[in-house]
Fold this sequence. Notes:
By secondary structure, this protein is α+β, with helices and mostly antiparallel strands. It is 15% helix and 40% strand.
Amino acid sequence: MAKGTTKIGRSAKTGRFTTIKKAQQQKSTHVVETIKKKPK
Length: 40
């Protein structure tokens, strides 16, 4: 993973955050997103 980024899991139905592991297991209803961290 590149510096300054983080991955999160999100439900495609509700938009709520979930674990990355759960998102990878349930690909039909979840997505894994890569988000850039804000510089300090």
